[in-house]
Write a structure and sequence with these properties.
Chain lengths: ~180, ~200
């Protein structure tokens, strides 16, 4: 079945939910890509997202893989445009308008008001991912370890994710 | 190196905030392509190092301002910043060159990773490693949440809005859009312009 129209619909919709970061759209992404369209399983979604954290560039490039699975190379391209196009156009329009609104008093209100909501959305996305990713003591220890290291030291997060891979091999390989 | 940027910064008349005149589209594309290919572990510090420190395309104040706009809008920081900086330098074409540049390397990489994972994802070594990777990613997102909270929250009551948002999405399953609009409006009204701020805001 041709998945291209569905890919366009789903990813342009998800695009508009990424307030504060890609993670904000995660709960909705799970519902649409896993439960509704069954393009991949929940563990696969978590794996792709996590591997994507090691790639350079914007951290939601894993959507390309979902597009490729569901619709081949065209699917990958379509997803890329659908996911980054709408927000890019919005940012472009706002970039022009925002300067004119410099004196508008609600401008600060909007920024201050959206800050906690976008943080909440990131956290909600994080919890919904943790449900699948934190499965026991080892995974919980890795997550907490990474969090504490990042809060305390200036380390490149991609290296810590790579470290997570090493710990995963160490902990979960069948003996 | 960057002749245009160097000339622009040497011009005595050029205001600090003004865009260096006529940065070539190709140069914008290449600069963002480089950022897109090298920014392991988060794009924002790389953007700053490249656009502010190396190229002088924008100054630090503009960078912070653009970042806060990027954060309030839907879209990833990396791509929103590319659009904003590209727009400032060369209008619509600049935006397009910047966003394609910053996305291209990661997209090609994840395209390949996706194919590889689809074929070999059930290999025991890979599932074991990915379990660790996913757990580490959770820790990484949490650290982003903490970092953003320290940087962008303006009052104690903001934690109530964070809690409301999490509750609405994870417990009440209201969905992201309804939560965003509902809690968003309440939070914006809570931070509404106050009388005493009027003077300083208008000046």
């Amino acid at each position: 079945m041709n998945q291209i129209p569905a890919l366009i619909r789903v990813f342009s919709y998800l695009s508009l939910l990424t307030v504060g970061g890609g993670m904000a759209a995660f709960p909705e992404m799970k519902t649409l890509t896993v439960e509704v369209h069954k393009w991949l399983t929940f563990p696969q979604l978590i794996h792709l997202y996590s591997v994507g954290q090691m790639a350079p560039g914007p951290n939601m490039m894993m959507i390309v893989a979902i597009g490729q699975w569901a619709g081949g190379t065209l699917g990958a391209l379509v997803v890329l445009v659908a996911f980054f196009g709408p927000t890019a156009i919005l940012a472009f329009i706002v970039a022009r308008a925002w300067r004119k609104l410099e004196k508008w008093r609600w401008r600060t209100s909007i920024q201050q008001g959206l800050a906690p909501v976008s943080i909440g959305l990131l956290l909600a996305g994080c919890f919904s991912m943790a449900k699948g990713a934190i499965t026991g003591t080892e995974t919980a220890a890795i997550a907490v370890g990474v969090l504490l290291i990042l809060l305390r030291y200036k380390v490149n997060p991609a290296l810590l994710v790579l470290g997570g891979a090493a710990l995963g091999l160490f902990s979960f390989l069948p003996k | 190196m960057s002749d245009a940027a160097a000339k622009a910064s040497l011009q005595p008349g050029a205001a600090a905030a003004a865009a260096p005149a006529d940065v070539p589209i190709g140069q914008i594309f290449l600069e963002f392509l480089t950022i897109g290919a090298t920014s392991f572990g988060g794009v924002v510090p790389y953007l700053r190092a490249s656009l502010v420190t190396k190229r002088h395309w924008i100054d630090d104040k503009e960078f912070v301002e653009m970042l806060s706009i990027s954060q309030s809008l839907p879209g990833l920081n990396a791509t929103n910043m590319a659009v904003l900086v590209g727009e400032k330098l060369r209008g619509a074409l600049g935006s397009i060159a910047a966003i394609i540049g910053v996305c291209l390397p990661g997209a090609v990489l994840m395209f390949a990773v996706g194919i590889f994972y689809h074929r070999h994802g059930d290999h025991v070594w890979i599932t074991a490693a990915l379990k660790g990777v996913a757990a580490a990613a959770v820790g990484l997102i949490l650290s982003t949440v903490v970092g953003l909270s320290q940087k962008s929250l303006t009052g104690k009551f903001d934690f109530v809005f964070i809690a409301l948002t999490v509750l609405a999405v994870n417990r009440l399953h209201l969905g992201v859009p309804r939560t965003l609009i509902g809690v968003g409006i309440i939070a914006i009204l809570w931070h509404r312009p106050r009388k005493e701020q009027k003077e300083s805001a208008v000046q």
